[in-house]
Amino acid sequence: MSRPAPTPAQLACGSATTVASALAMLLLSRPSGPAVALVALGALLLGLLVALMLPAPRRGTPDAASAAGRAAGRARTPAHAGAGVPERSLHG
To answer: Which of 16, 14, 38 is nearest to 26 (CA)?
Structure first.
């Protein structure tokens, strides 16, 4: 079974993690030569891990989920909640 394509949120979080971790590691360790490639590889792996660990979207349709939520909300609402006391005017 193939994995679904990543969502924009997963791509954004993975990219932000890659850039931030690469900058942090480069600024803190000040590597030179081949160590820069190791830092870049580590940042890339960390970004990939973050992107894959984000929860995937649910497979159900949003319309069905919201309809089920509205039905559950109505079930908890008392029957008399919609019937209000009529307001009386002070002018007549």
So the answer is: 38
